């Protein structure tokens, strides 16, 4: 079983190498990508079942035991997020493949897209599974390098500008993360997460606070929490729809996962965090209000992405099993629905030739299927019953209402932010799908990666998007068993004992 833990990282890397070797065959590249991600999905499902039944599954790389060697750990939380992330990545890849076939023909290979896409998947898998801070840093650097290539393929001046913003902010975060790792190692002599769970507690309280705040800043930049969010609305909207969907669905959630892991394992608390509650409120409100001010559909969705990062941060700030379980459930829901909405935005842009909401109209008449594909995830994001968004928000509200007056106030902000999200989605629906149909605009830049204004879309692109909608519906249908798994995952994060015993062994994990 421990061998399986390495496969979500190794298989995409091997697949990336194979797609480079087979770069002259578009069919071979597509086959490798789909088969690799399907295999990783199966492995992730097996790891989730194994972790849920028998505790964390650990792989010691190179035969070196922790805390000296590098370990990969699949517990309930990491295996669950790995599974949903890989399923979403597979659907996005199918969408991207069909989009490329529609635009360039079935025999046109890509020298960069498939290997870089798989490399990004490997980085995400490593971030979820790693058992030490330095390997987490490596995972972030893999994701950064792959992300920059995907943003700037067949580039334009505006995309280079947004890509540079993304890279500069990410490199700043990486330097700060490397500094944090150095300080942690200097103070404790280890970077292994399970080992740090014991050794950090022996440090002076002031030093613990400084290290915890540095982790919040580092991972807060990755997760785009307010006021560290400014890079996201300028970076994501300029990329092609599959790339934006992948970034929105996965990359910010990796930052939230890192916050969850470090704050519960290394810097645990027995009461709600006032700082995180304040940041959660600001993130929810600023993101929602920013969305209402947008006429660009992708920027509107980007600001809503920021807003809902605050929902996840709220569950962590509660700092009890129910709150953390609510955050885990919300991450699963949000990975799916946010990626779906950006894929739908790509379909809308292809038909209309624009991202301007005011320049659209009447799509419910010209493309009823597209209207359905937008309506379901839009209602899910707003948390309308009985969608997965409602189930996840209800879990957060119950946790917040039972944790004290401060968290109850923030729970009220969750409701307000949800209403603002609903208003933003209704506004998009009225302007984009109602009214008289408008003629599609011509493609302003036929040489870039985005082919728009075609008033046509390959049917498989609809199928890939519909598959993600179906996953979101399945999450709502399976809310009971899924909530039970996230509940056990939340309890594991607070207990810390099973994780430390699995990584360090009985004798080294008091």
TrEMBL record:
InterPro entries: CPA3_Na-H_Antiporter_D, NADH_UbQ_OxRdtase, ND/Mrp_TM. The keyword Cell membrane applies. It is found in: Cell membrane; Membrane. The keyword Zinc does not apply. It is a multi-pass membrane protein. Residues 131-414 form the NADH:quinone oxidoreductase/Mrp antiporter transmembrane domain. It holds the Pfam family Proton_antipo_M. Keywords: Cell membrane, Membrane, Transmembrane, Transmembrane helix. The chain crosses the membrane at residues 6-24, 31-51, 77-97, 109-128, 134-151, 163-187, 207-232, 239-260, 272-293, 300-322, 328-348, 369-388, 408-430, 462-484. Belongs to the CPA3 antiporters (TC 2.A.63) subunit D family. This is Na+/H+ antiporter subunit D. It comes from Pseudonocardia acidicola.
